[in-house]
Amino acid sequence: MMTSLKTLVRGLLLACLCAATVAGAQEATIRKNLTERLPEMGKIDEVTKTPMPGVFEVRVGTDLYYTDVDGSYLIHGQMIDAKGKRNLTEERMNKLTAIDFEKLPFADAFTIVRGNGKRRIALFEDPNCGYCKRFERDLQKVDNVTIHVFLYPILGPQSTERSKVIWCARDKARTWQDWMVQDKPLPTATGCDTAALARNVELGRRHQVTGTPTLVFTDGRRVPGAIASADVEKYLAEAK
């Protein structure tokens, strides 16, 4: 009985070893062939099997491609699980671009609290961004939330100057909302330490935040664009 069990274990270990060897060989073949055939793709970071037989995911940074076992064909698009009604590419991208919410440097943001403030969200926004203004006006409908605003001046010198005025204001949150929601003129500039703005730009670049507004939820999900307040509510509920 003991001998049979040992034989079974050895057999399972051998099968696992063989499978790992085959997988490693397949990955090496895909890397080699795609690198030679499409050098403009850049460095391949990861090759993994997908649920679709014979199809592999190729990750280059946060770009996802799909290829066959020989790296002869390459697809850049969405993989949908029709049976499960899931967008597998979107799910994978959400994991790749997730931001650890609790590790955000909140000292470099200002905070707006509405209602009980139990729900939380972080925003990367530029005071010179028209989409941000539209988003902020619709965001007024969302209650019981704490909003951490990271000024993210990436649209030119005027963005930087306006961000400095807001950051140095006595009441940052009030000044921000007066400007973004009410179109009230910004106050006269006063001097203060604005190093946080440069840190925010570096933070955003590190996390590949390429546009404003960009929203970050407590589950790490990042959502770009001026989404509607109803969608904000949906993501807040999912983040719980």
N-to-C terminal Cα separation, in Å?
51 Å
Named CATH topology of the largest domain: Glutaredoxin
Order of helices and strands: HEEEEEEHEEHEHHHEEH
**Would you state the CATH class of the largest domain?**
Alpha Beta
Structural class assignment: alpha+beta
| Tally of domains | 2
Give the averaged pLDDT, no decimals.
90
Strand content: 15-25%
Give the tags.
Glutaredoxin, alpha+beta, 7 helices
Can you tell me about this structure?
The protein is an alpha+beta fold. The protein folds into 2 domains: 64 residues, Disulphide bond isomerase, DsbC/G, N-terminal (Nuclear Transport Factor 2, Chain: A, Roll), CATH 3.10.450.70; 139 residues, Glutaredoxin, CATH 3.40.30.10. The chain is built from 7 helices and 11 strands. The strands form 3 sheets. A 5-stranded mixed sheet has the order 7-9-8-10-11. It has a 4-stranded antiparallel sheet with strand order 1-2-3-4, with helices on one face. A two-stranded antiparallel sheet has the order 5-6. The longest helix has 36 residues. It is elongated, with a radius of gyration of 24 Å. The termini are far apart.
